[in-house]
Amino acid sequence: MQIDWWTLGLQAVNVLILIWILSRFLFRPVAAMIEQRRAAAAKLIDEARTAHEQAAAELQKAVQQTAGLELARSEALKKIASEADAEKQAILAAARAEADRLRAAADSDIARASQNATEAHAARASQLAVDIATKLFARLPDAARIAGFIDGLAEGMAALPAPIRADIGSTPIRLKAARMLTADETQACRQRLSQALGGRPIDIEIEVDPALLAGLEIDMPHAVVRNNFRADLDHVAAALTQSAPTQLGRQGPRP
């Protein structure tokens, strides 16, 4: 077999030229195109990664905001519940206070009505006693309406505090009587009252007060001495209404 070196050389040159042409006009553009596509794909991948990271960051931020909102909601619900409970307690306290006030007002009204009824009964009883006493004393001698009360009046005068008794007598003593006194009764009153004051001479002025029914009364600027049936009836009425001591008194300094 004989080799034609010229033909082989020309074919080799043709191959080299073909390779140069392909590398010049095919391989390089294709490689550049592939590189561009690779760069574009890498850019897209980088952009996708960046977008993914941003989305993950936004998601984390949203999760944190959601947790914050949930916490704020929980705190707000707790605060609302606490305020509602406080308002409930305040309403209950106000209701209890109003109920206590109404109960106290009702008790006061009941007590007042009871007191008024008691006072009305006592007033009627007192008036009835006055009417009965008036009729009874109308049947007695006039002397009995005065004589039996002189000593008690003198004893009441003697029981007054010393400073008050010391001022009595400088001016005429106003002596109230259920009726006008006779001369002997006036003298007896003057004598007994003088003895109650340690023997000092005194002067008296008689004032008729039929409301006394029977007895005497001395009215002075700083004290009053009573020994009459009307005063006893007033004490009984006061005792019935529990507005005055039940013990019947005959004298006492004025407040």
Helices and strands in order, then pairings?
Elements: H1 5-139, H2 147-158, H3 162-167, E1 173-177, H4 183-196, E2 204-208, E3 215-219, E4 223-228, H5 229-240, E5 251-253
Parallel strand pairs: 1-2
Antiparallel strand pairs: 1-3, 3-4, 4-5
Helix pairs in contact: 1-5, 2-4
Strand content: 5-15%
Based on CA inertia axes, which overall geometry fits? Answer: rod-shaped
Q: Which radius of gyration do the C-alpha atoms yield?
A: 63 Å
The counted number of beta strands is 5
Distance between the termini: 171 Å
Question: What helical percentage do the residues reach?
Answer: over 70%
Overall description:
By secondary structure, the protein is α+β, with helices and mostly antiparallel strands. The protein has 2 domains: 62-139; 141-253. The protein is 70% helix and 9% strand. The protein contains 5 helices and 5 strands, in the order αααβαβββαβ. It has helices at residues 5-139, 147-158, 162-167, 183-196, 229-240, and strands spanning 173-177, 204-208, 215-219, 223-228, 251-253. A 5-stranded mixed β-sheet has the order 2-1-3-4-5. A hairpin with a 3-residue loop joins strand 3 (215-219) and strand 4. The model is unreliable at 244-255 (pLDDT under 50).
